[in-house]
Amino acid sequence: MFRVETEYGTVGHPLPADVPTGEATILTTNGEVTLRVWYA
Questions:
Q1: Per-residue model confidence (pLDDT) at position 34
Q2: Cα torsion 2, 23, 16, 20: sign
Q3: Range 1-6 average pLDDT
């Protein structure tokens, strides 16, 4: 499953409370973009 977060909004599934997640953040010309992934 995944979730993409920016300062303009969020797309994807809600983050689970009890599952380990991986995350990567990159700075673009329009702001930071964070990708979160996990196995459900």
A1: 98
A2: positive
A3: 98
Distance CA 2, CA 26 (A): 16
The predicted-structure confidence for 9-31, as pLDDT tens digits, reads as follows 999 999 999 999 999 999 999 99
Q: Domain count for the chain, please give it.
A: 1
The pTM of the full predicted model, rounded to 2 decimals, is: 0.88
Residues whose CB is less than 8 angstroms from the CB of residue 13 and which lie 6 or more positions away in sequence, other chains included: 1, 2, 3
DSSP-derived pairing of the beta strands 9-12 and 31-37: unpaired
Extract the tokens encoding 16: 């689970």
Domain of residue 21, residue span: 2-37
